[in-house]
Design brief:
Strand order of the largest sheet of chain A: 1-3-2
Radius of gyration of chain A: 18 Å
Largest sheet of chain A: 3 strands, antiparallel
Distance between the termini of chain A: 38 Å
Shape of chain A: globular
Largest interface: A-B, 58 and 58 residues
Number of helices of chain A: 6
Helix content of chain A: 55-70%
Strand content of chain A: 5-15%
Number of strands of chain A: 3
Structural class of chain A: mainly alpha
Oligomer: homodimer
Chain lengths: ~170, ~170
DNA sequence: GCCCAACAACTGCCTGAGCAACTATAACCG
DNA sequence: CGGTTATAGTTGCTCAGGCAGTTGTTGGGC
């Protein structure tokens, strides 16, 4: 055929997309067993890794793929399901925190081991250490270039602005 | 903090996801300039690279991230916009082809160069050739492992079942 | 202190996509 | 041939999520 679509750049993107889509599908399947969607898993993970298991709604939005209105709604659902609570922010009455409940933490505990197993099985375990390192190195450079401003931090008290390569 | 979330597996997935998300955002921005959504671009690309610039609805669904009902609707919209037409399948009256129109091909021609430039600028051009090769190699292995049955082919006449690493 | 701009969260409205039900056709089997 | 089963595509219903507009709160300028 010798057409434009064999261009190596197209192929490269195709690989990245297909790897991503394939992994996403595996993750979704496992998460569903624990009653979580991908978005909910990301939300609960971001919260659980934050000091006090909480984050202001805006910061949560900035750390996820969601708009603030999207966050409002996910948190609504997860609050209804008992995984999260809202807590008023003491020094700014406009803000509120989303906080993981005990039930939420437990759910995460139940989910994480399987999640890690899947990552290992389908991703990191597919490559020997140097190949994996090379892959991650490449991804990191692309990520840094394209960085859509990830890592919007928890902006209240002492917090470190560490490099963030967050969860699913 | 020394918690679970610093696990290298989590970090690896984070990198893949953030690279993907970042690239997607760049693509969307450029495609929007040409009046295409990501899905529409994928559809028109898949069709344009197929023999006769056409594909049966089902095969199109299999090649994209869409369900068959999703395909029905995208094709509806794109037909309304003059980028595609439906054509009856001569030997199976249940099936119909989605065919790219001249206007559709032209739109694609206008869009592709910029698209390739963006890939180069933010992805392939970020790495020297060996590093890129290593990255793609790793992605290919993950993709092959996780292969969600991509490459559902054009199943009518003479068609090659080539490895497919399709477009965005 | 008062006013106005900036900001946090929420809500109404709309679009896109999936599932399941439905229709029409095809294929298979007696 | 007639009937049963599978397949292609479309449509109704539902839900998730974005944008833009609203409300309540804060802070800065005077």
């Amino acid at each position: 055929m010798t057409n434009v679509f064999d261009d190596p750049r197209i192929t490269a993107v195709g690989l990245l997309y297909e790897a991503h889509a394939g992994l996403s599908a595996r993750f979704s399947a496992q998460l569903e067993e624990h009653g979580l969607s991908s978005v909910e898993f990301e939300v609960i993970t971001r919260l659980a890794r934050s000091p006090g298991n909480q984050l202001r709604m805006t910061d949560l939005a900035a750390q996820t793929s969601l708009s603030t209105s999207g966050v409002t709604r996910v948190v609504d659902r997860m609050e209804r399901d008992g995984l999260l609570t809202r807590r008023a922010c003491p020094n700014d009455r406009r803000s509120s925190y989303a906080v993981v409940t005990a039930a939420g933490l437990q759910r995460l505990d139940e989910t994480l081991p399987g999640h890690l197993r899947i990552i290992e099985q389908w991703f990191t375990g597919q490559l020997d250490p140097e190949a994996l390192a090379a892959l991650l190195d490449g991804l990191r450079r692309v990520r840094d270039a394209v960085h859509p401003g990830a890592t919007a931090g928890s902006t209240d008290q002492g917090h470190e602005l560490v490099e963030d390569t967050g969860a699913a």
